[in-house]
Amino acid sequence: MDHLACFTPGDLQSARAPDLSSYHWRLLAQGDSWFSNATAKLNAHANLLQELVLKEKACVVNCAGTGEALAHMVDLESAPDFVRLLSSPEAPVWDGVLLSVGGNDLIAAAQTPAHTADGKEVPLHLRLLRRQTEWGPPSAGVARYFSEPGWATYADYLRSNVRHLLTLRDQGPSAAKPVFMHCYAVPMPRPAGSEDGGLGSSGPWLYPALKAYALPGADWAAISRLMVFHLAQLLKAMAADKAQFPGLHVFDSTAVPLALATPGSSGNSGDWHNEIHLNHSGSFKIARAWSEHIQNVLAPPAPVGKQR
């Protein structure tokens, strides 16, 4: 098993550009902070791409860049390299596309306040959490705090953007090639922001949102789990819909056992560097499991009885 050779779009245009043809598999990547190339983030908590391993020599051109802010789903105007390398007629033929998207939009939706700065109420279909006067019955469990109308808005947004990405793929030389997405792990809401300094959105992220909505602290872990599992079910349903999302493959990261962070902790804890980013051990666990999923799509194992 070999680690992927990781390059950037800038590497392809340099005087010492890598020879992509020397690799058995060539992959293109775009994503959020779980794929970030920012040096401070790599030193602090690595990224999933660094820990992927495949049975054949492979490389990835990572367009996630070194941006300090949390990336949203399809901010393609700020990702011209990715669009060009994916959809241009002159782009390489990629064996697959790796995407780490949707998680930061989920966090942004959870952070949406119940009222605007001038005191106007934000309607339920534009936020994920409910004010105390809007809570459902106790029999609903933590779902009583969750805005299903807001979730429907988020789900529509995610579906339309992933369809757009698949359309871009099919406009270029890599039409119909597999697109790999991962789900997210369940974070523990806690006062643990970035300790790296100058990383843009430095957090914490969920912790202040749940406090602002005055949700019971004893339910925070379950609320986080509810939101992340909703996202996982949405992504897996999209991958199962081959008509609307052809060639989409989703890996369920929620099934990978991770060491939870200690509630109330403010630093590195369990498999987590901070509230929403994995540390090196967490990245290793998720990436190695995802590697097997990717490997089985790129090179399906021979059926039983057909192996030599």
Topology:
Layout: E1 2-3, E2 5-7, H1 9-12, E3 25-31, H2 39-45, H3 48-51, E4 53-54, E5 58-62, H4 80-87, E6 96-100, H5 103-111, H6 148-171, E7 179-182, H7 206-212, H8 220-240, E8 248-251, H9 280-298
Parallel strand pairs: 2-5, 3-5, 3-6, 6-7, 7-8
Antiparallel strand pairs: 1-4
Organism: Roseateles violae
Protein name: SGNH hydrolase-type esterase domain-containing protein
InterPro entries: SGNH_hydro_sf
Descriptive overview:
This protein is of the alpha/beta class and 308 residues long. The chain has a single domain, classed as Rossmann fold, CATH 3.40.50.1110. The chain is built from nine helices and eight strands. It has helices at 9-12, 39-45, 48-51, 80-87, 103-111, 148-171, 206-212, 220-240, 280-298, and strands at 2-3, 5-7, 25-31, 53-54, 58-62, 96-100, 179-182, 248-251. Strands 2-5-3-6-7-8 form a six-stranded parallel sheet, sandwiched between helices. The protein has a two-stranded antiparallel ribbon with strand order 1-4. It starts with a strand and ends in a 10-residue tail after the last helix. This is SGNH hydrolase-type esterase domain-containing protein.
Short description:
It contains nine helices and eight strands. It is α/β, with parallel strands linked by helices and 308 residues long.
Features:
single chain; about 300 residues; alpha/beta; Rossmann fold; 6-stranded parallel sheet; 9 helices; globular; SGNH hydrolase-type esterase domain-containing protein
